Amino acid sequence: MSISPDKFATGPSKNVQVELCPHPGYFGGLCFRCGKPRDEEDVSGVAFGYIHKGLRLGTSEIDRLRGADLKNLLRERKLVLILDLDHTLINSTKLQDISSAENELGIRTAALKDDPDRSIFTLDSMQMLTKLRPFVHKFLKEASNMFEMYIYTMGDKAYAIEIAKLLDPTNVYFPSKVISNSDCTQRHQKGLDVILGAESVAVILDDTEYVWQKHKENLILMERYHYFASSCRQFGFGVRSLSESMQDERESDGALATVLDVLKRIHAIFFDTAAETDLSSQDVRQVIKAVRKEVLKGCKLVFSRVFPNNARPQEQMMWKMAEHLGAVCSTDVDSTVTHVVAVDLGTEKARWAVGNKKFLVHPRWIEAANFRWHRQPEEDFHVIPPKEKSRDKVNAVCGQKETSKDKEENTVAGEKETSNDRKEENDVADQKETSNDYDGNDVDGQKKDDAKENAVACRFVGTDRGDCFCYPLVQVQDVKFKSGPREISLLT
Length: 492
Fold this sequence. Notes:
492 residues, Rossmann fold, five-stranded parallel sheet, four-stranded antiparallel sheet, 29% helix, metal-binding
C-alpha cells in the first residue's frame, strides 16, 4: 500500500510521531529522500536511465515533475516533440551492406572527407554509414524554438548517442533527452511513460505507427527516408536507391520541410486560439486531429474495387484514412460525390466518374495527402489504363522481388558511360516512353529522362498493418559531383 507524504505512523510512544518516507524515487538503488535501499521485489515506478544511470522515479514524483514541466513549457510557449531517428531524420547502412553501385560512386570516400557541409558520415566503431536527411539541421533549429525535443529510437544506446552527436554536436537540442530501446518499458513498443512531459502537449514524429499503439493520437506519421540500397532491400523494394541514382530529396519541399510547416500550424493553433488562462486545458491531440481533418475537407469519395469483395468498406484502412483527413466516404455515387477512387478504369463507377466529369484518382492520392498534409493535384494520381496496369504492378506493389532487368541496372549503375551509351541516350532523348521502358511508371507522354527520375523518386510508405505503397511524393534533385565522374559529393 502506498503512503502519501502527509501520512504519519505512530511510533513506540504515543507522544512521538514518525513520518514514513513515500520513497519518491531512487538513485543508485537508494531512496534520494531517506537513503533507504530499494526492495529488490519492488518493481514500481519507471527507470529514467537516459537522464542518469540508476535513476528510478515513482508515479507520484513523475506526476509532480510533469506538472511543473507543463507550467514551464506553457510559460515559454513550447510543446514537446519526440523524434524518431532511422528513416525519419536519417538513414544508416552497415559497411558490409553497401552495394557495388554505391561503392563505384565513392560513397565511403565522400563520408571520410573533412567537409563541414557534408551530410554522410562514417561511424567507425559500428562499421556503418549514416546519411542525414536533407533539411534536418534547419528543421531542428526552427523546431527548437517551438518544442522541447527528445530523440526516441528503437536502436541501441551507443548508436543513439553517436547519431545525436551528428545531429546536435553542441548538445543544445537533446541534453539528457536521448532515449533508446533499453529505456522502453514494453518490448517492441515506444511509450510516453518515459517522457517527463505531459501527453497533452506531446507531438511524435515517427515513420512506424505500430510502435506507438498507446499514443496514435499524438503521432504524425513520417514518410520513410530510403537513401541507401540496403534500406530499399530491407523493405523489399526492387528499385534503385537515391544513393545509387545520385539523387536526394530537395530541402525546399522534402519531408522535413513539409512536416515543419505542419508543426508550425499546430503550435500556432494551440497557443493562439486559447486565452493564456486556458492553456493548461488545451490538448495538442485535438489540434492535430483538427489540422488533419482540413486536408480533404469538402471531398466526398466513393471507392471502386479497392477493397476485397467480402470486406466491410468502413473497416478498411484507406476508408478510415480518408475520414481522418476530413473526407466523407460513401458506397454509392450521386451528384454530391467529388472523387471516385479506383485502380481500374473499367469499373462502372470509374466510367461514371469520367462521364460525369468527377475526379478519378488512384488510392495513392489519399496516401500522398496523408503524408503531405495537403490535398494533392489529382492529375498526378490518375488511374492507369488496363493495357498499362500489368506494367505498373512491378513498382506499385511493394515487396515484389527485383527482376533480372532491375538487378542488371543496379549492378551497372555506377559504371562509366560508354560512347554507345551516350549515343543511345541522345537518340531517344526526345522520344516518348514506351511500355517496355521503366516498368511501373505511368509516364505516357513524358520523356525518358523524366521517367527515369520518377522511377527513382518513388517513396515507400509503411502503415501499422504492414501494408506498403509506392508512389512519387517528394521531389528529388541530382547530387552534385565534386571532381570527376566517380567522386560524389553528398551535400544536403
